[in-house]
Structure formats: C-alpha cells, structure tokens
C-alpha cells in the first residue's frame, strides 16, 4: 500500500468514525433525555443497567493560582512536550 493509499484509507476511516461518534452521541443523548424525563439516575432495561449520575470531583484552578500566587504556580509547573499528528 502506497503512502497516498494509506492516507486516503485513513481519511475515509476517520470520516466513518466521526459519523459513528455522532450517531453514538445522539443515541446517548436520547437515553439521557429519557432518564431526565423519568427523573432517574439509574434504570434497568432488559439485561442492561444504565447509570447516569453526577460524579463529584475537584481540580486545581491553575488560572486563579497563577493570578494569586504566581511564584508557587511557577515552582510546580513543569514543561511538557507532545506531538500532534494531522493530515489536512
């Protein structure tokens, strides 16, 4: 398979994946809307148990930390590097 064929195949698969993601999101949103209408966080449908409930969490507000305590924020900030793969 040539590089061109690989790229064409990859682009085609990504389009299909995007379409599937959109369809999955649509169905999930429909189920969530039904659960909201029923005012439930959990339900059983046939052999499936569906849960959609809040999960508590917390994280550091880095923007506020940098504004209020820039020296401390700088001490605990480490540079990172990543690679981004794109085909346009």
Chain-wise SSE layout:
Layout: H1 3-38, E1 42-45, E2 48-51, H2 62-68, H3 70-75
Antiparallel strand pairs: 1-2
Explain what you see.
With 88 residues, the protein is mainly alpha-helical. It has one domain. The chain is 56% helix and 9% strand. It has three helices and two strands. It has helices at 3-38, 62-68, 70-75; strands spanning 42-45, 48-51. It has a two-stranded antiparallel ribbon with strand order 1-2. A hairpin with a 2-residue loop joins β1 and β2 (48-51). The longest helix is centred in the N-terminal third of the chain and has 36 residues, at 3-38. The protein is flat. The chain starts with a helix and ends in a 13-residue tail after the last helix. 0% of the residues are buried.
Could you name the key traits of this structure?
88 residues; mainly alpha; two-stranded antiparallel sheet; 3 helices; 56% helix; flat
Strand pairing plus helix content: what structural class? mainly alpha
Q: In order across it, which strands form the biggest sheet? A: 1-2
Q: Write down how many β-strands occur, each being a DSSP E stretch of 2 or more residues.
A: 2
Runs in which pLDDT lies below 50 for 5 or more consecutive residues are none
In short, what is this structure?
By secondary structure, the protein is mainly alpha-helical. It has helices at 3-38, 62-68, 70-75, and strands at residues 42-45, 48-51.
């Amino acid at each position: 398979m040539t590089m061109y064929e690989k790229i064409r195949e990859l682009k085609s698969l990504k389009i299909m994946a995007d379409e599937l993601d959109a369809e999955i999101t649509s169905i999930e949103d429909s189920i969530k809307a039904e659960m909201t209408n029923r005012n439930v966080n959990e339900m059983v449908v046939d052999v499936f148990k569906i849960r959609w409930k809040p999960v508590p969490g917390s994280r550091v507000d880095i923007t506020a930390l940098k504004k209020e305590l820039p020296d401390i924020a700088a001490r605990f900030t480490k540079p990172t590097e990543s690679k981004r793969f794109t085909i346009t």
